[in-house]
Amino acid sequence: MKRTISLFFLLLIPILQSHSQTLARVDSFYMPSLGRTKTLTVLLPSKYDPKLRYPVLYLLHGHSGDFRDWSTRTKLAEYAREIPLIIVMPDGENSWYVNSATSPQDRFEDYIVSDVANYIQKKYAVDATRQGIAGLSMGGYGAMMLALRHPGKFRFAGSLSGAITYPRDIGDTLRPAERSLAASLQRAYGERNNGFRNGHDVFHLYRQTPKDSLPYLYLVIGAQDGFRKFLPAHRALTDLLRAYGAAYEYHELQGGHNWQFWDREIQAVLKRMREILKF
């Protein structure tokens, strides 16, 4: 094991009441950026008090996932039981969390950073000065990309098995696992290498922001991750972050590209975000 530290329309439906008394809700609302109604899951702390102000974590799903994944496929509610934190899990479809280069109606970056954030800040008691974003696989890439494209908005960005090889390796989809991503990648970034891709590539984005303005970056990946380029990409990126002087943390652990790994490692993400944002 290696560990390197270097309306809006509203519908509220309680969907999970665990023994921890932490409540997950489903909120459906109209998204101006997409021109349609979408759904997200909100996890409130067990002793939620609207008179207080809580940090918020936007937690993104992976490819072929949805807003229910984190709340139903992990013990997130149990892990967040004692944490004064609001966790928001939006539905990003297979968008790669970008404003699509090929489909003008797919403005998923605007949806996350504007529509969802504005809705949550109006509906819940959020401390907008203490916001984090994290995700797994496609969502890990999305969290890093959005945090780097919007410096100052998120103070913490966490990536679990992040698909950070994209969009630079968009043409490398030969194995079955990668091949399943091809259609959504082309829809998001277009078929030709262009400035749009560079503008959404974390290997380019970190250098466009002064290091003191970067969020704290937390990356973790399994040593047995099934995507053959993900692990080398993590090593390469963290070498670059170290040379740049960014505040970051990298963990390379035993595990694969699966829910067992993500269920385990989300606990460390929550712990570290709490330490960084001091709540």
* Strand line-up of the largest beta sheet: 1-2-3-5-4-6-7-8-9
Question: What name goes with the CATH superfamily?
Answer: Alpha/Beta hydrolase fold, catalytic domain
Q: Give me the Rg, rounded.
A: 18 Å
What profile does the largest beta sheet have? Answer: 9 strands, mixed
Distance between the termini: 30 Å
Strand content: 15-25%
- Average pLDDT taken over every residue: 91
Give the number of helices.
10
What pattern of helices and strands is seen along the backbone?
EEEEHHEHEHEHHHHEHEH
CATH class: Alpha Beta
Annotated CATH architecture: 3-Layer(aba) Sandwich
Our count of domains comes out at 1
Tally the beta strands: 9
Structural class, please? alpha/beta
* Shape call: globular
Helix proportion range: 25-40%
Give the oligomer, counting copies of the same chain as homo and different chains as hetero. single chain
Low-confidence stretches: 1-20
CATH topology: Rossmann fold
